[in-house]
Design a protein that fits this description.
By secondary structure, the protein is an all-alpha fold. It is 66% helix and 1% strand. The chain is globular. The mean pLDDT is 87. One of its GO terms (cellular component) is plasma membrane.
Length: 513
């Protein structure tokens, strides 16, 4: 029998959602301070209003159950699943009030894209957007890349009554960097801030040398660093990374994107001096071979394309686009128009496949993940061995992932299940694109970009896209960020809870007679 939510369960869920909403008030608080410092008074009023809305709604929801019980696994999944869309609905308010979005739905699309670190956008005239509005977009990348629950856990906002492990796992993470969940979340936060600051300095200096004014160079450096490490893809300029015309900036961003797409649980292996564990890890080996193979294939498919001036330029751009796609960041060194007109169909498909696979598990990247691809390959090897060996033989397949492990049936089953769910979601989005009149390759590419949180656009997503398709893409981004299980569990539990059980249904029938 499916578990059902009681009235007290709903009150408990509302309480912890309220905690997250109150916590989220810090997000619009950052652009509010930015607006004050830069004397952008109109944006300041919008973000002050949003802070007030967060505090009011969040406090009211917390009061629904002042002393909540400890969260169980089902409640934790509900809190996590709902938080991503509820916070996006609130975050869309100040952006919708600006003059850069045609509708509230466009602003909501951008907020879901920002929080899920997809990077697709519906903004108009972004080159003239206020600094405060741009700051908010990248704050959403930071909060979403870290994970809404990870941020709350690291600050201890759920208190001692919360089920830390259930909350942590419900956001698509299962491996602990250190034994304690709260310590793990704080380690991730410290590492993210450290990498972003280390990336900011050289990018800032490069932009200064190229002639950008200091304040603008600092903000662009900060925003690009956040977007790269959180594998988000938002850019302060409409032409993405192409705006900077800098091989140095592109190289720095590639390094940061790669750092953001590596499983955070592997970093302590390097810190402890166990580099052999790091380089023998299934994820690292799978990812390295995959990136090298796909870069070579992309170069081969673009060899005859009249897009680049020489071989070094083509190699640099191919490497950048592969890293951007694999990390599911979404930075582009070619425009959407060039993707659909100048790129060969083979190159176009390569980028879609790379985005579909994604980066490392337990990192900020999306997609199916290197770890699952490696597990599926190991499962294939196990199946072949079982067929070749005598029936009496016991086939054992090992792999290295933070220590040597034995391939278990439940691990293979989980990898295949998530793989299948991603493929189904890619197909659904593709069919939706076809229904709205787009060609098959473009519809497939855009669907993969949304569900994998990849963000590289072939030109469908943007201001003026059909409303129905926009809603489907929002759902794809939401589902992809939570890796389906949390969202599916939430939907099932809500449907079961609002559907009368057999006894209630029988009583209603008897009463009607």
């Amino acid at each position: 029998m499916w578990p059902r939510f009681s009235f007290n369960d709903f009150r408990t869920i509302a309480h912890y959602l309220g905690v997250l909403i109150v916590c989220f008030a810090v997000a619009p608080g950052v652009p509010f301070v930015t607006a004050l410092l830069l004397q952008e008074w109109e944006p300041a009023s919008r973000y002050l209003l949003t802070v007030g809305i967060c505090l009011t709604i969040g406090t009211a929801m917390r009061l629904l159950m002042p002393t909540p019980s400890r969260l169980n696994r089902q409640q934790a999944m509900a809190v996590t699943g709902l938080a991503w869309i509820v916070l996006a609905l609130i975050a869309a308010i100040p952006l919708a009030m600006s003059n850069h979005y045609n509708t509230y739905t466009d602003a909501l699309f951008d907020c879901v894209s920002g929080l899920t670190t997809t990077g697709a956008t519906c903004v108009t005239n972004i080159d003239h957007m206020s600094m405060a509005d741009n700051m908010f977009r990248f704050v959403m990348h930071f909060v979403g890349g870290m994970g809404l629950v990870v941020v709350a856990l690291s600050l201890g906002l759920f208190g001692r009554r919360s089920s830390d492990a259930s909350l942590y796992a419900s956001e698509g993470r299962s491996e602990h960097v250190v034994p304690n969940v709260v310590q793990t979340t704080r380690f991730i936060a410290r590492m993210a801030v450290t990498v972003i600051l280390c990336a900011l300095v050289p990018i800032f200096l490069v932009l200064l040398v190229t002639g950008m004014e200091p304040l603008r160079a600092f903000l662009h450096g900060l925003w690009l660093s956040i977007s790269a490490f959180m594998t988000g893809g938002f850019s302060p300029m409409s032409t993405s990374v192409m705006y900077y015309h800098s091989a140095v900036v592109e190289t720095l961003l590639m390094v940061v994107m790669l750092l953001g797409s590596i499983n955070f649980a592997l970093y302590p292996e390097i810190r402890r001096g166990r580099t052999d564990h790091f380089f023998h890890d299934l994820e690292i080996r799978t990812g390295a071979m995959w990136l090298l193979l796909m870069t070579a294939v992309l170069v081969a498919t673009l060899a005859s394309a009249p897009l680049f001036n020489d071989l070094p330029e083509m190699l640099r751009n191919c490497a950048f686009m592969i890293v951007s796609a694999a990390s599911t960041t979404g930075f582009q060194t070619v425009s959407a128009n060039q993707l659909t007109t100048t790129f060969s169909s083979g190159a176009f498909l390569v980028l879609a496949i790379v985005m579909a696979v994604g980066g490392g598990a337990g990192a900020t990247s999306g997609g199916i993940k290197f770890h699952r691809v490696g597990i599926i390959w190991k499962s294939f090897v196990s199946t072949v061995k079982s067929a070749l060996f005598p029936a009496s033989a016991r086939v054992v397949v090992d792999y290295h992932h933070i220590g040597r492990r034995q391939l278990r049936p439940e691990v293979s089953r989980e990898a295949l299940t998530v793989f299948t769910l991603y493929v189904i979601t890619y197909v659904i989005g593709t069919l939706a694109g076809l229904a709205y009149g787009y060609d098959a390759m473009t519809a497939l590419f855009e669907s993969v970009a949304m569900a994998s949180n990849g963000g590289i656009s072939a030109g469908i997503s943007g201001a003026g896209m059909p409303l129905g398709l926009e809603i489907i893409y929002i759902l794809q981004m939401w589902a992809g960020r939570l890796e389906f299980v949390t969202l599916m569990a939430l939907i099932v539990e809500i449907v079961v809870s609002i559907t009368p059980d057999r006894e209630t249904f029988s009583r209603l029938l008897n009463r009607g007679k």
